[in-house]
């Protein structure tokens, strides 16, 4: 569930999100939530139709209280951007003006560079039904637009804010391949460990006359070792697999097929390395 | 407003989006809309709480009818992924298993490579309240997780689907800086055009004794030319500016300040290149 967690760092910096004449409190709340998800905090409203504060916005914000409480309301767009140095306008349609058009990735990188340089920036989002007027776009420095399905191009404002907020967050990462948590760190197996596993499984198979006829034995061993080599098993994975072979290597089943007294999950993953 | 447009290409390919035990029809509808926005079309539901079809989903889908109509329902996750070759599980929290954890960018690139190679792929999204179980995550090949504000980390499923769909769309672009439309193409000005503008403005200023005292004239001209050079004006921009100077260069105002008979916008942008 959504919520703030006082033990974890609360990111709250970066461009102001400026909603021009938003109509529904729910949308304002979802915008606040999207901003909070990706570390933005400064929300400005120009002439919101249903006034401010808004209970519907509060409810839809899913505890993004720091964004909702800090929201500022302005009578005009000119006042809302007065203290900013650089402003993007979001729009889904081509305008006649001279302004440069940027992708969200490029816009976020530009906003990040200006943020690092100490500039104040903002991003304009238009009304639910028809976006920004040409006069409003003209107040911005550049345009940002989203790469969308040509036949289904319209994003709602909460979605558009989510994507720009997400790109803002990514623009601050050294590496877009980084993740907030990683797989459990596993030591790669050594060749000795892999060969030990080959030896175990081949011995158990040999005891059951698997390698037959003798002329095919070298090829069978080749194939088996290729199958077991390709995944590049880690040390704990080899440990899991050796436990499986040890169990299968018992002389007889304890129960006949389909008669096990308790359900066996059949999923080896995550069973730990203590099976051998 | 959202809607399909038969004149424009409808993208409908790529990984299946698989919602495990979704509760609210509204969320399923918003997922369908997000998928349509970024060219995905194959929605699968595992055991949806309120059944299927859903009027609420249809309403929230904002005319993503091709997604809603093609939605398939499965009793179990195993059945829902049975025909797929490679599956990601989305999760916001670290799991104990051995699975690799990927960022959305890397996951989308992997899905794109597998799509190009003819594989069928899917992405799992968990329940609204508590996501996917460990057993469900275990059915996937790898994990994908989002870079979020540590203190405000929870995305709703429509937001999570939106981000993965957006990254899927971007993974098919040659250049993430590309935009669906561009600024009006403008010829860069030649130096001759720039120098002609210098000459015009300097002559008009000289006629008003702007360049004063004589010892400072070279520095004043240097500074003025530096200000006018830095923006790298295009040919139509120079044309607009020459029109402005021509107008200002009239000997007298036609009306006193504040007495203009009609409001002047004062915004030179976008006024066209026919002013000179």
Automatic annotation (TrEMBL), chains A, B:
* Keyword Acyltransferase applies: no
Gene3D superfamilies, sorted: 1.10.8.590, 3.40.1280.10
Q: What is this protein called?
A: tRNA (cytidine/uridine-2'-O-)-methyltransferase TrmJ
Pfam families on file: SpoU_methylase
Q: Spell out the residue ranges making up region: Disordered.
A: 256-276
**Record's InterPro entries?**
Alpha/beta_knot_MTases, RNA_MeTrfase_TrmJ/LasT, SpoU_MeTrfase, tRNA_m1G_MTases_N
Q: How does it assemble?
A: Homodimer.
EC code(s) of this entry? 2.1.1.200
Q: Which GO terms describe its molecular function?
A: methyltransferase activity
tRNA/rRNA methyltransferase SpoU type domain residues are 16-166
State the gene name recorded for this protein: trmJ
Class of the enzyme per the UniProt entry, highest EC level? transferase
Keyword list, A-Z: Cytoplasm, Methyltransferase, S-adenosyl-L-methionine, Transferase, tRNA processing
Q: What does this protein do?
A: Catalyzes the formation of 2'O-methylated cytidine (Cm32) or 2'O-methylated uridine (Um32) at position 32 in tRNA.
The organism sits in which domain of life? Bacteria
Q: Which family does it belong to?
A: Belongs to the class IV-like SAM-binding methyltransferase superfamily. RNA methyltransferase TrmH family.
The reactions it catalyses are: uridine(32) in tRNA + S-adenosyl-L-methionine = 2'-O-methyluridine(32) in tRNA + S-adenosyl-L-homocysteine + H(+); cytidine(32) in tRNA + S-adenosyl-L-methionine = 2'-O-methylcytidine(32) in tRNA + S-adenosyl-L-homocysteine + H(+)
